[in-house]
Amino acid sequence: MKKVPKKLLLLSSSLLVGLSLTAGAEDKKVHQGLLDKYQPEKISGHVYVIHGPMGYPDKENQGFMNNPGFIVTDKEVAVIDPGSSSAIGRAVLAHIRKITDKPITQVFTTHVHGDHWLGNQAFQEENPDVKFYAHPAMIEEAKNGAAEEWIGTMDSMTEKATEGTQAIIPTEALTDGQSFDLGGLTLKAHLIEGKAHTDTDVMFEVPEEKVLFTGDTINNKRIVRMDDGSFAGGIKAADYALTLGVDKIVPGHGHTGSKNVLTYYRDYLNKVYSSVKDLREQDMEAFEMKPKIEEKLTDYKDWQGLDEELGKHISLSVLEAEQEDF
């Protein structure tokens, strides 16, 4: 029998995935915009990232705003942060199937915020035996209400564009330094001690290819909410990441870059937090601090989310600095 070229096999596989995803339209919605407008970028020999848009979840982007990543080896595929809805997860899956027909065996979550992991559902649909990994605190928080809260938040912010998503909560609790053999490549989990962006943060390193997935602990040209985090903890986490032997940084939001991405985001956190502590000593209130702190952030004036988040970041920094005094 004549051997079928691998490219044709992959094409057939992707067509079958497409057919299965469109069957039962209501139950199997796919984020068509992600499929049409965003493509996986190969950032190293085996690592791909789909760089999402920078805005907040809304009806137009249908909740797509993060950077889903995946690692393809000769043996299997591992996925990191597949996005904020089942439809987004199915689009990520379809992109993967255009590249490889290898089994997707493991899905990893960087933190509890649902815009990063509610796409899990698509991968359980394809492979009921896939394993979902996360920080133990993420698993507990998700079980204790965070999962349903994020389902509701995404549904509300997108005007029901994410409706029908089920929260597939990870069941496999990671430990710090835990390594996974992906068939010639290693994936190593770095659990962040205490709070950084949240108290559930994990960074994932691919040592052989010097790649680091940071989740929202680090972002590039995007200022994110810090309601669940710590500025001092975020600075510490960035300093830790700088000690690792990596040279490609995949942030939670924004484009992949060099180690400068770590330094630049750390410096934003540090400028806000250190300025707040200095201005507190002058007995200034939070609202009085903003103009002075803005003067120190001219390098970040074009960053998405600065106008929306800076005032809140100053207020949160004041509270954190007050807690340091006790």
From TrEMBL:
Residues 65-253 form the Metallo-beta-lactamase domain. Residues 1-25 form the signal peptide. Gene3D superfamilies: Ribonuclease Z/Hydroxyacylglutathione hydrolase-like. PANTHER family: ACYL-COENZYME A THIOESTERASE MBLAC2, METALLO-BETA-LACTAMASE DOMAIN-CONTAINING. Keywords: Signal. SUPFAM superfamilies: Metallo-hydrolase/oxidoreductase. Pfam families: Lactamase_B. Belongs to the metallo-beta-lactamase superfamily. Class-B beta-lactamase family. This is MBL fold metallo-hydrolase. It comes from the Bacteria.
